[in-house]
Specification:
A hairpin with a 2-residue loop joins strand 26 and strand 27. The protein has 3 domains: 149 residues, Immunoglobulin-like; 151 residues, Cupredoxins -  blue copper proteins (Immunoglobulin-like, Sandwich); 118 residues, Cupredoxins -  blue copper proteins (Immunoglobulin-like, Sandwich), CATH 2.60.40.420. With 453 residues, the chain is mostly beta strands. It has 3 helices and 31 strands. The chain binds CU-O-CU linkage and copper (II) ion (2 copies). CU-O-CU linkage binds next to strand 6 and strand 30.
Length: 453
């Protein structure tokens, strides 16, 4: 079996002050790399080539691996025919380094993103462009990649085989080109309502790949939803997941779940226990999930789709490994310290009834403040809400207290429901975006500006 690991290319980076990994006291190092966004041709679906936009020539872009405490220098070269940025989705970096629409890099331009990975940030993140109004187009054309941040004191055994599973979907015309219809065409209107969904599902840029596991083995998987709109309801037939983390890293304790709902932009870290017998196989699927209004629900919305085959090797089962019951502390943000409760309403294309205006500040907040945001979805379609710059905690969903604490930067707000989150602006003054992460909605202005000062 040649598919021991399902890897995407990991970028080889220049490391100035290398230090041995695994020591909590390891001195900080500097990691320096170049990401070039450019048009190129690749074969994404069998038999045809497609004009794509790619980071360093691959779709997805290279997986970036950092350690807590790293000083990161990314030389971004924009060789696209349009403005672009690199946004480090979920990473806590200064506003000028956030790659938001405020700092677009012109075609042919370049920019150095320089930031330090905070302690405690270990987790799964991703990067993608964020130019005003054309983020969906650039992601659909292939610009997205995974980021893994490692902790020196990771509580999970280092011996667990690990995979990043970057989930995306796309739609193609018969000649292989990416199907992006005019906005005023019938499909263009559906793509705006639902966000653009594709009928071809990719894991790490591959269609229905195979991942090998040995019976009895435990593997660590990091899911990232890099789609433009699709929500994944992940399940592995006959098995459960032990979920150990989400957007901002590990939970306090593992949680046993049958399925994982992953809206656009969200991440989940899970342990998969190889409970199947040698030689058997299991399929990772996305199950039906009705996020839609009835008028634009896709015809196949109620069908499951296969994502990945988990193939058990013929080797005899290995003995089970001990897994920790405690992962790390996730200190609670205290609602009694909140100075404000803000209400953000979501409707089709609008936040609080408005379309984004980059010259307007929608929310002004003080550095150091703790606030509660109540996000209310007024319409019959789910909207995943994302905040830049700061990890938050979900307090409750439709009044039901969140069962366990986690650091999040994106939360799905189902149709006609509301979610309360708590956030503390611990540092980094500046202007930050918050928005629906359905890219068609974000591009249409379903976004606001938070200024922290
Ligand atoms: Cu994943 Cu504003 O972005
Ligand atoms: Cu973001
Ligand atoms: Cu939306």
């Amino acid at each position: 079996m040649s598919v021991r690991r399902l890897g995407v290319s990991t970028l080889f980076v220049a490391v100035w002050t290398a230090s041995s990994f695994g020591q909590p006291t390891a001195p900080p190092r500097t990691v320096e790399l170049t990401l070039t966004a450019a048009a190129t041709h690749l074969s994404l679906v069998p038999g045809v080539t497609t004009e794509v936009y790619a980071y360093n020539g691959t779709v997805p872009g290279p997986t970036l691996e950092f350690r807590e405490g790293d000083r990161v220098i990314v030389h971004f070269r924009n060789n696209l025919p349009q403005p672009s940025t690199i946004h480090w989705h979920g990473l806590h970096v200064p506003a000028a380094m956030d790659g938001s629409p405020f700092n677009a890099i012109a075609p042919g331009g370049h920019y150095d993103y320089v930031f330090t990975i905070p302690r405690g940030a270990a987790g799964t993140y991703w990067y993608h462009p964020h130019p005003d109004q054309i983020t969906g187009l650039q992601v659909a054309k292939g610009l997205y990649g995974a980021i893994v941040v490692r902790a020196p004191d990771d509580p999970l055994p280092a011996s667990l085989p690990e995979s990043v599973l970057l989930l995306s979907d796309n739609r193609f015309l018969p000649d292989g080109s990416i199907d992006i219809p005019p906005p005023d065409s019938p499909q263009g209107r559906v793509d705006f309502e639902n966000g653009r969904e594709g009928d071809v599902l990719f894991v790490n840029g591959r269609i229905l790949p195979t991942l090998a596991i040995r019976s009895g083995e435990v593997q660590r998987w990091r899911f990232i939803n890099a789609s433009g709109a699709r929500v994944y309801r992940l399940a592995l037939a006959g098995q459960t997941f032990l979920q150990v983390g989400s957007d901002g890293g590990l939970f306090e304790h593992p949680v046993e779940v049958k399925e994982i709902l992953l809206a656009v932009g969200e991440r989940a870290e899970v342990l998969v226990r190889g409970t199947g017998p040698p030689g058997s196989r299991a399929v990772l699927q996305t199950l039906p999930y009705d996020r839609y209004i009835p008028q634009t629900r896709p015809a196949d919305w109620n069908e499951a789709h296969d994502l990945l085959t988990l193939q058990y090797t013929d080797e005899p089962a290995v003995a089970p490994i001990a897994l920790p019951a405690e992962l790390r502390a996730v200190p609670a943000l205290d609602p009694s310290k909140a100075t404000t409760t803000r209400v953000v309403t979501l409707s089709q294309g609008f936040l609080n009834g408005k379309v984004m205006d980059m010259s307007r500040v929608d929310v002004s907040a003080s550095l150091g403040a703790t606030e509660i945001w109540e996000i209310e979805n007024l319409v019959g379609l789910d909207h995943p809400f994302h905040m830049h710059g700061f990890q938050f905690q979900v307090l409750d969903r439709d009044g039901v207290p969140e069962p366990y604490r986690a650091w999040k930067d994106t939360v799905n707000v189902p149709k006609h429901e509301s979610v309360r989150i708590i956030v503390r602006y611990d540092d980094f003054p500046g202007k930050w975006m918050y928005h629906c992460h359905i890219l068609a909605h974000e591009d249409a202005g379903m976004m606001g500006v938070l200024e922290v000062k």
